[in-house]
Amino acid sequence: MRTKTLLLTAALSAVGLSTSMAQVYSVNAVGFVNVTIPAKSYLIVANPLDAGAGNNTVGKLFKGVPEGFIVYKYVPGTGYSINAFELGEFAQPNQTLEPGEGAFVLNPSATAPLTVTFVGEVKQGALTQDIPKGLSIQASKVPQAGVLDKDLGFPVVEGDIVYRFGRTNTGGNPAGYSVHGYELGEWGVVPNIEVAEGFFVNKAAAVAWNRTFNVNQ
């Protein structure tokens, strides 16, 4: 195995991406990802790195957040589980956010943006995650940006609808959702997903998101 610095692009060789919303720095398959949440704003974030057994929890992933920070994890068919940071601790510190899972987060500060840092290993090899029928929040298991199906291997089918919140393909941060429908074999608006971005998808049937990802050769 030889060590190399990677740059995650559509061509996909490695880790080291800089965007307006997230920066990734890594050598080999270990690194960190910074995600900035604007002041007094919601964002759907995802955990793009594996922090290790027992460490992919809200209490360990979101250290140093301010009072009033909230994680909203969407449970298909049930709704949101609300996990607030109050009096120095989360209501559910052991709630998981594994690679490939996303959740809404709220930065309660009225003036200051908040940077959340994810630290861990890049998952490699044959990767799979189950996408249920109906509405769910999904995300890439690895810190890669690109077109959802062509670059990230998402199993898109006719009628799929993807909802991105507070992001645009040019890196802006408007309020509300952008809607990306897949009809007649193509996207109306192509969903270019950013590193550590979670998104809603509405599926007519359950499916597995399977792909192979390798950083080192």
What does this structure look like?
The structure is a single chain. With 217 residues, the protein is an all-beta fold. The protein has two domains: 31-120; 128-213. Helix content is 2%, strand content 42%. It is built from one helix and 17 strands. Strands 3-7-4-5-6 form a five-stranded antiparallel sheet, with no helix packed on it. The longest helix is centred in the N-terminal third of the chain and has 4 residues, at 58-61. The radius of gyration is 17 Å and the shape is globular. The chain starts with 21 loop residues before the first strand and ends with a strand. The model is unreliable at 1-20 and 168-174 (pLDDT under 50).
Helix-strand layout with pairing:
Blueprint: E1 22-27, E2 30-37, E3 41-46, H1 58-61, E4 70-75, E5 79-86, E6 89-90, E7 102-107, E8 114-121, E9 125-131, E10 134-138, E11 146-147, E12 161-165, E13 177-183, E14 186-187, E15 192-193, E16 199-203, E17 207-213
Antiparallel strand pairs: 1-2, 2-8, 3-7, 4-5, 4-7, 5-6, 9-17, 10-16, 11-15, 12-13, 12-16, 13-14
Task: Give Rg in angstroms.
Answer: 17 Å
Task: Say how many strands there are.
Answer: 17
Distance between the termini: 6 Å
Poorly predicted ranges = 1-20, 168-174
List keywords for this structure.
single chain, 17 strands, 2 domains, 217 residues, five-stranded antiparallel beta sheet
Summarize the structure.
With 217 residues, this protein is mainly beta.
